[in-house]
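We read letters as residues; the fold follows as tokens. Both lines appear below.
***
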Amino acid sequence: MADQTAQDQTAHDPACQDPTAEALDEAVAFTSDLIRIDTTNRGGGDCRERPAAEYVAERLAAAGLDPVLLERTPGRTNVVARIEGTDPSADALLVHGHLDVVPAEPADWTVHPFSGEVRDGVVWGRGAVDMKNMDAMVLAVVRDWARRGIRPRRDIVLAYTADEEASAIDGAGFLADRHANLFEGCTEGISESGAYTFHAGPRMAVYPIGAGERGTAWLRLTAQGRAGHGSKVNRDNAVSRVAAAVARIGEHQWPIRLTPTVRAALTELAALHGLDTIDSLDPDAPGFDPDALIGKLGPAAALVESTLRNSANPTMLQAGYKVNVIPGLATAHIDGRIVPGGDDEFVTTLDDLTGPDVDWEFEHREPALQAPVDSPTFAKLRAAIERFEPDAHVVPFCMSGGTDAKQFSRLGIVGYGFTPLKLPPGFDYPALFHGVDERVPVEALHFGVRVLDHYLQSA
């Protein structure tokens, strides 16, 4: 029904007609092809995105663009191309997606993770949702524009990046630091992790658009001690010290820190559930308790519960080499995430939790981001979804993790999470990120092509 409504609306708007059937087919084919190109990023530089980058560049070139391939490290390839708009005075828009994927163990999957198989109307494989689907949809839209002779109003810069699944040092970080000129004029960007169907209840299709990200704070804890025999009394045990610090960090209850994006998300989600939030979201009001409100949101709680506060989760422990030898050094790793404005609290709290016997440092740090939810851009993103899904409930949300938008923010680019997909009830899209049996419905890709085509023309 939504597809027919969209066709009826666009039929009366010659400036924004539906993409062709060829574009819809290409989005599926490109997703499948890109999945078959194994770009597994195991960290530590163990990845090779170049085959996928060349695949993309060849198809952009066939659409009349002039893509450039850029590498900081051989094989870690990025692709950048610019589409000239009709209004030279307009700010440019960045559309970016990464080409690398996280590892997948074939034995755990129903379908081989690098087969790209299309089965029962679904494309299977690693990258189907994170994020070769978006890479493919954008590629299909751009090629369709070339066939139809369409130019957007504003310049659009396309960036297909390496290394997002690790540090981004070979990808978006490298582009922002060394090739900023390619992004001249870009003030806003769109990329992954937003605008998909989230079924929050019966006949309640929520489409969360990313308007913020918690900051990344990967930490290394180090405890020094006195090495010795495992049978002897040792009050300077490095393992005990780091273990105690890890336990304190894991048990810590971080205080609520409501950001504007999360406040807006809670307000809109509460309204959908018929809940009054005026008092409950005022930190100075009696009974201020967002956690209690979260408990009333049902499945929609998953969209906000991880972004109410800072977090620090222990993930790795390293010490010793033999059971009867007390090592003189023990380390631990913590995955920390920081809400916008929460940096000082995070540092002070980690100092307290680690104590005097454990040192800690940032191994990787990226800033928290916020994008305005009352901006013309957010309104256009909302309108693009509602055009093709009139019953959609579009809400802003803050991502618990991070994307390449963090690196591009160094250039003053405000990022939104916008990878539009219409998904059926029971399809747990967020759970498929880095999960087993990653897949995306063909019809979801078709929906995404239509929404992206409309938004990018009207942006």
About this structure: The chain is about 30% helix and 25% strand.
